[in-house]
């Protein structure tokens, strides 16, 4: 976790556009947005991916979803809709190995995803 970019944002060693934070979670705007709203929700604690979570993380994961829902409401996405994405490992396109949900909204999305 030494050079994890999201750990550095969480620790405020590098700047992030913070959208939400509490004792366990931080949400910040993606540096390369794929939609008008593109926010990343991450645990403060370094967890590599969904593959690394344990039963003890179940509450934390639930809170990530509730924070995503609240941010979607706050950014006016709730009625039209929004997408939550959690990429796990290479085939899914995970590029930062610190667990995160993408909250995407403000445009229409295709299904199936590319
Ligand atoms: P993933 O490909 O699912 O691992 O998503 C990683 C996301 O992190 C990408 O959408 C990147 O644009 C984003 N990202 C990488 N570095 C930063 C950064 N310094 N600040 C904000 N977002 C970042």
Write a brief structural summary.
The protein is α+β, with helices and mostly antiparallel strands and 114 residues long.
Helix content estimate: 10-25%
For the record, what is the CATH homologous superfamily label?
HIT-like
Q: Enter the CATH topology name.
A: HIT family, subunit A
Spell out the helices and strands N to C. Answer: HEEEHEE
Number of domain units: 1
Termini Cα gap:
29 Å
List the main descriptive attributes of the protein structure presented here.
114 residues; alpha+beta; HIT family, subunit A; 5-stranded antiparallel β-sheet; 5 strands; 20% helix; globular; binds adenosine monophosphate
Topology diagram in text:
Layout: H1 5-10, E1 18-21, E2 25-29, E3 37-43, H2 58-74, E4 82-85, E5 101-105
Antiparallel strand pairs: 1-2, 2-3, 3-5, 4-5
Bound molecules: adenosine monophosphate.
The site of adenosine monophosphate has 12 residues, from loops.
Structure, described:
The protein contains two helices and five strands, in the order αβββαββ. It has a five-stranded antiparallel beta sheet with strand order 1-2-3-5-4, with helices on one face. It has a single domain (5-105), classed as 2-Layer Sandwich (HIT family, subunit A), CATH 3.30.428.10. It has helices spanning 5-10, 58-74, and strands at residues 18-21, 25-29, 37-43, 82-85, 101-105. The protein starts with a helix and ends in a 9-residue tail after the last strand. It has 114 residues and is of the alpha+beta class. The site of adenosine monophosphate (AMP) has 12 residues, from loops.
